[in-house]
Amino acid sequence: MSSSFESFRYPSKAALLKKCDGLGLSISYLDNFDLLFTPLAVGDRQTPNRFAIQPMEGCDGTEDGAPTPLTFRRYQRFAAGGAGLIWFEATAVTPEGRANPHHLLLSKANLPDFKRLVEETRHAAAVAVNGSHAILLILQLTHAGRYARPVDRPQPVRAQYNPILDPLQGLTEEDPLITDEGLLDLQDQFLNAAELALAAGFDGVDVKACHGYLISELLAAATRLESRFGGLFDNRSRFLTETVQKIHEEFPGLIAASRINVYDGVEYPYGFGVDSEDPDQFDLWEPIELIKKLKNSGCALLNITMGIPYVNPHIGRPYNTPLAGGKSPAEHPLIGIDRLMTATRVLQQGETDLPMVGTGYSWLQHHWPHVGAGVVQSGGAQLIGIGRGAIAYPDFVKDLYEKGAMDPGSVCIGCSRCSQLMRDHGRAGCVVRDAEIYQLEYQQGRDRAKESEG
């Protein structure tokens, strides 16, 4: 059976498993997914179920980084939908670390707004489940690194020279790298943001180390020589592990977490977790060692992902339709899903007492709860994370609990329009399932892009 790309066309369990069998993939599928409604201990807290909302940026903050009514709406919908863990979107720790001018930014000035966001999110969850649904809230802290765009133009901050990525941004070796002193200052900013997150009422913070952003690039910075934060693995992992350890030690009321790339999909030595001879294959030796170091540093929760969206978006989020101007990958999306699940399974089974969130399920549409249950049962992950699927269908958990199934007419269709909204510098959401809010936004963004290209 062909392993080349094709869009989703599997309305039944039989059709999906037949395709998996033809591709030589072994994906577990349980008819009963009650296991996903069991609680899970995370640090000294507990999630009421195994459903996690992944961090998906809305690009709808104010100019100073505070949440807006659309931000409140998004998280209230997630909370009312019944998920046990909400992993809040990337929130910058410094103004120059924002990925766009409407990126969330946590500061002393807007702390009251974030505190209200936490309170209203928890209230929405409690009301939806008769006051007994105590959800876990994790805030993702970030610096966008080479993809920083805090104003209406790029302002990249690089950790290393990269002949694969630099030309895509018009960068050369003459453009500067962030210094070790700059990184030490930035580490202080992460700690300041963690303290503010605790004051806002979040249960934990994620030191974001994925998708090619600054800390993720540091993990791959093998060519950053004569640096405390580059070259050898212990140096490349230092910023992340030190920051996690300091958060764990200085703020014992917070869960220290991280969303990490375990495979960049970019040629060695410029990508993390990449086979040195074949960039199409992962090598988990360094990710395994990183997780051991993170655990020893006090990390209590991990979220596993892959890829760099600006280069190989299909690796981290398999889709049916590429972004405008993009191409469909050569591989079938199920191969990408299997890659994500395989790597996560190896890592989770190596550290069974460190909960990990699995990634990449939305493409499976109404089948993913069955596949997710199989993953949890086999020890391949302890939480199942949904990103694009939750934006399209925020009340999926409630439907699974009350009706025993998801509505196939409400699921994410992998059209990439939520990502396209971000690329077109608009506010991001589901254009298909939330058209009243986002259809006009999408069209306006496409019109602006065509004008600039023309």
TrEMBL record:
GO molecular function, one term: FMN binding
Family matches, as Gene3D superfamilies: Aldolase class I (3.20.20.70)
Name of the protein this chain belongs to: NADH:flavin oxidoreductase/NADH oxidase N-terminal domain-containing protein
Range of residues in the leader sequence: none
InterPro entries tied to this protein: Aldolase_TIM, NADH_flavin_oxidoreductase, OxRdtase_FMN_N
Segments forming domain NADH:flavin oxidoreductase/NADH oxidase N-terminal: 36-400
Keyword Oxidoreductase in record: yes
Sorted UniProt keywords: Flavoprotein, Oxidoreductase
PANTHER family: BINDING OXIDOREDUCTASE, PUTATIVE (AFU_ORTHOLOGUE AFUA_2G08260)-RELATED (PTHR43656)
Pfam family, one: Oxidored_FMN
